[in-house]
């Protein structure tokens, strides 16, 4: 007598159901984690631009809206910088908005691009010369977005 080895249709259907459930849970969690890591990249970029603005101010006694003057590899006519790079960018950092006079300062923004547009939790990040952080059009609190 020969023994039949293999799986029954019922066993295969159970395994398929388990894999489908695990996939249904894992993919959204993975996408959320990827979006959070991209948010951190945007925050880091804003803080880097702020640091360069302060160095520029120390040397020139004024802020600049020219990203190339801050040492970024963009043309002087460029109005924004892709983050992290032009090939795979998920945020755009437009040229700083600079105010002059007695209340000289700057305001920075990181606006979502490409697939990061789906992230409605923390949408547009802002940072200014006074160290004030912001989150515009996001559904989460400021503390949640900047952690």
From TrEMBL:
Keywords carried by this UniProt record: Membrane, Transmembrane, Transmembrane helix
Residues that span the membrane, as ranges: 12-30
Top-rank lineage group of the source organism: Bacteria
InterPro entries listed in its UniProt record: N_methyl_site, PilE-like, Pilin-like
Transmembrane helix as UniProt keyword: yes
GO biological-process terms attached to the record: type IV pilus assembly
UniProt keyword Membrane present: yes
Pfam families: ComP_DUS, N_methyl
NCBIfam families membership: IV_pilin_GFxxxE
Protein name per the record: Putative major pilin subunit
Protein's organism: Amantichitinum ursilacus
